[in-house]
Design a protein that fits this description.
By secondary structure, the protein is α/β, with parallel strands linked by helices. It has 14 helices and 13 strands. The radius of gyration is 21 Å and the shape is elongated.
């Protein structure tokens, strides 16, 4: 979902690089160039395995509810279509470290996997930097133009990359804050500054909130080490806190709740997992469904049914208004009837 913790110098020129697919090698003989072009075309289109069996590498940034659900949905969609015996998943978790994402991707490239799932933005960035031939599908990524620094993005990345976006409508999230907290004055915007897609959401919702007359203040942190201090400050100075789809926030909801709940400050979150951990309400997608949607795209790539370079980025089919019953009651927040209570596991 969500995070840009590494800087990829080559991404700025990515569109050209993906189209060329290894341009420096094309300076060889005409025969080599022709062979290379054929190989690149097969890689981009996802030509079918000769024996109908596939190996899929999955790089997941960190373990938390949303990303776990997306990975599970992805695997289920592929096995439902191709059968459990015909696909091998190599699932590796980077434990929140972007450099580890690069190491994982390099391993997948060495193994020559048939397709890579990049679950969250740093995984996508590492995959884009690691290979321009193996098909890459991203998921839990908010905005591909921001993640990949694309200046001419039109909904299709091109080259060997496509995927799904987890962005719920920002204007509707702002409207939710206005609906639930019409008398609030100061809105704190909590996010990790190392996550580019979090900043993208913060900048977008600020415009809507300020139009509604709220005063907005950024409360950014570089990593989990200074999160406690930043949340404490936000809880003292704000009426409501907004949290985007941010991996660091999602991995530290208990810490956040332990500060905001005693202070009586409600959090409106951009996804269900964060809301369940520390929030009051959310306009959320279903990450399992998003992963399943991505898995269906993967099947089309693996079997050669579609060319990944021509596949537009897809978005979640629906969003749902949800709330945490216990936290809403404890903070005295009145929830309208069209909100669905979040179901929590025992």
């Amino acid at each position: 979902m969500f995070k840009k913790a590494i800087t990829i110098g080559t991404i700025a020129a990515m569109t050209a690089a993906l189209a060329a697919c290894g341009g420096s090698a094309s300076s060889g003989s005409s025969g080599s160039s022709a062979a290379q072009t054929e190989a690149e075309t097969e890689a981009a289109s996802g030509s079918a395995s000769s024996d109908g069996k596939y190996t899929v590498g999955i790089c997941q940034l960190v373990q938390h509810e949303a990303l776990d659900a997306a990975t599970q949905g992805f695997e289920d969609a592929i096995t439902d279509e191709l059968g459990e015996d015909n696909v091998t998943f190599d699932l590796q978790n980077a434990q929140g470290d972007s450099n580890t994402c690069s190491t994982i991707i390099n391993g997948f490239v060495s193994e020559d996997v048939d397709l890579i799932l990049a679950n969250a933005t740093p995984a996508l960035q590492a995959a884009a930097a690691g290979t321009d031939s193996i098909p890459i599908l991203g998921t839990s990524v908010t905005d591909y133009a921001t993640a990949l620094e694309l200046s001419d993005y039109n909904g299709t990345v091109g080259g060997n990359i496509s995927g799904t976006s987890d962005l719920a409508p920002i204007d509707e999230q702002a409207a939710m804050i206005k609906e639930l907290f019409p008398d609030a004055k100061n809105i704190g915007l909590l996010y990790c500054s190392a996550e580019a897609n979090s900043k993208y959401q913060i900048d977008a919702i600020r415009e809507y909130l300020e139009e509604d007359g709220y005063t907005c203040e950024d409360y950014s942190f570089s990593d989990s080490n200074d999160l406690s201090t930043v949340v404490t400050d936000a809880s003292k100075e704000c009426d409501v806190i907004y949290a985007p789809t941010d991996n660091t926030v999602a991995s530290n909801t208990e810490l956040i709740a332990n500060i905001t709940e005693p202070a009586g400050v409600p959090i409106v979150a951009a996804e269900e997992g964060i809301c369940s951990g520390c929030g009051v309400a959310t306009l959320s997608i279903d990450y399992y469904d998003l992963g399943y949607q991505t898995g269906k795209m993967a099947v089309k790539v693996l079997t050669g049914e579609e060319d990944i370079s021509e596949m537009p980025i897809e978005s979640a089919d629906k969003v749902v208004k949800e709330y945490d019953e216990d936290r809403a009651a404890a903070l005295g927040v009145e929830i309208p009837d069209d909100y669905k209570p979040i179901e929590k596991s025992e």
